[in-house]
Task: inverse folding
């Protein structure tokens, strides 16, 4: 058990940036807008957060800058997909490539530089609970905020009227429009908030997790976030479990490398991604008639109010 606790704690910490990105993507996709640009948004958020934290000496300002960067860039995606009715897949892929290239260009002179980030602290009382305390309550403030975010979104989506309206927009935008809900406004709002959370996920990587800037530091986590939304069948609590499962495999492979295992390093680096692919295969086999279980019915479908079916 003493050996397992550090690995589980590392899984929570490693999975936290993916939690933020996944929660943002769930919000966007629940409204009917697919954002495949998570990788690019995370990279832009990582650079914006690092740059702001380095300039001001404040990790809090760095995280706020990462969130703002995600919002600003996602506004372009929302405009293309909601206002112009563009192809969401193409727009998302373009956003991912733009974010990767722009962050690499802006950060080329900062590679390897370090900053002072947020420090972990023991959460009062809860940190003393056997097993649960060391695993979940001896981290930085952003980990605790991620817990609250997941439970809040789960309650919001399934237990509140605005959450019901969100689901209606994603399932049947015409019916939602007939009820007086502004489909365009809802899709703009949730897509942009989701992009902000993706930027914050990248900011967590550079400001808190590694406290440095490295080109391409997300290492595919944005794509993993999109996959874990499917694994979680668009439900925050289940998706959070998937994030920590990914984080656990990632933490395990790093510890195996540090221990000097005979397994080649490239194979160890592949483990988290192979696990994610395996999960997606399992989900696909369980799906019926090729329809993803739990997917919003109008996901990826533009809504034009003047058109009639």
Result:
């Amino acid at each position: 058990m003493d050996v397992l606790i550090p690995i589980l704690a590392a899984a929570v910490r490693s999975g936290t940036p993916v939690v933020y990105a996944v929660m943002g993507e769930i919000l966007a996709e629940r409204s009917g807008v697919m954002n495949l640009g998570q990788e690019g948004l995370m990279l832009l958020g990582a650079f914006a957060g690092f740059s702001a934290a380095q300039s001001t000496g404040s990790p809090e300002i760095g995280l706020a800058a990462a969130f703002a960067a995600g919002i600003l860039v996602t506004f372009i995606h929302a405009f293309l997909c909601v206002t112009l009715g563009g192809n969401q897949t193409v727009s998302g892929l373009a956003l991912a490539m733009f974010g990767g290239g722009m962050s690499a260009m802006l950060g080329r002179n900062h590679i390897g530089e370090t900053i002072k980030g947020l420090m972990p602290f023991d959460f009062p009382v809860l940190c003393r609970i056997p097993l649960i305390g060391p695993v979940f309550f001896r981290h930085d403030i952003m980990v605790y905020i991620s817990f609250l975010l997941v439970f809040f979104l789960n309650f919001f989506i399934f237990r509140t009227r605005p959450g019901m309206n969100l689901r209606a927009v994603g399932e049947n935008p015409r019916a939602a429009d007939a009820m007086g809900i502004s489909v365009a406004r809802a899709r703009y709002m949730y897509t942009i908030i989701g992009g902000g959370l993706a930027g914050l996920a990248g900011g967590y990587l550079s400001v808190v997790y590694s406290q440095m800037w490295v080109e391409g530091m997300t290492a595919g986590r944005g794509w993993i976030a999109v996959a874990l939304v499917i694994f979680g069948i668009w439900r925050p609590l289940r998706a959070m479990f998937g994030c920590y499962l990914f984080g656990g495999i990632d933490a395990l492979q790093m510890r195996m490398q540090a221990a000097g295992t005979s397994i080649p390093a490239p194979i160890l680096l592949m483990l988290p991604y192979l696990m994610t692919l395996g999960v997606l295969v399992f989900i696909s086999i369980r799906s019926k008639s090729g329809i993803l279980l739990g997917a919003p019915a109008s996901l990826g479908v533009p809504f034009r109010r003047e058109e009639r079916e």
Summary: The chain is about 70% helix and 0% strand. The radius of gyration is 19 Å.
